[in-house]
């Protein structure tokens, strides 16, 4: 297993420079012994309760360091940017933002909370917000600035009462980008028109029965 030697140095150690710190680090590493023949994890560590410690990661070998990185570009946006959730008034009623925006809280907690314009909310939302505490809405995220904890979005539509099958189902299908609109007349014309329709014996003879 990787073992990281941590150390601290005071003002007296700093006077000796980094060469002195490197010598201390190498001495500490030499004190570690590995014995694969022993029972247990095979690692023996010497007690160094009061020994010197080094906090400068530049003094450690590369294999002891945790690599870090940052996202520099998004190749493809996989999320539909649509979310199902609830709207509520902002907590700070004296802020300028309270007069312009409401807060959208997605049901899926992986999606950030969103500022939505009050103009897109129902007309009586500000006067009676409690009447919409259990109403599901669809919101689409349009932007998320780097210096903001919340995204900005637009309310698409009201789905209905939370907990009912139809609004919940429509919300899930919309979030995942599933097209659940009605079939076109051209598509419906391809279906058998004489109902009830059954598979003919000739067709059944050519098929493999998996029932």
From TrEMBL:
What GO molecular function annotation could you give as one example from this UniProt entry?
poly(U) RNA binding
Give the matching InterPro entries: Dis3_CSD2 (IPR041505), NA-bd_OB-fold (IPR012340), RNR_Ribonuclease (IPR050180)
Segment Disordered: which positions? 37-58
Q: Name one GO biological process term.
A: mRNA catabolic process
Question: Would you say which domain of life the source belongs to?
Answer: Eukaryota
Specify where it is mainly localized: cytoplasm
Pfam (any one): OB_Dis3
Q: Where is it found, in Gene Ontology cellular component terms?
A: P-body
- Per UniProt, residues of the CSD2 domain are 102-177
Q: Which Gene3D superfamilies match?
A: 2.40.50.700
Record keyword Flavoprotein present? no
**Places the protein is found:** Cytoplasm
Keywords assigned by UniProt? Cytoplasm, Exonuclease, Hydrolase, Magnesium, Metal-binding, Nuclease, RNA-binding
Q: Could you tell me what this protein is called?
A: DI3L2 exonuclease
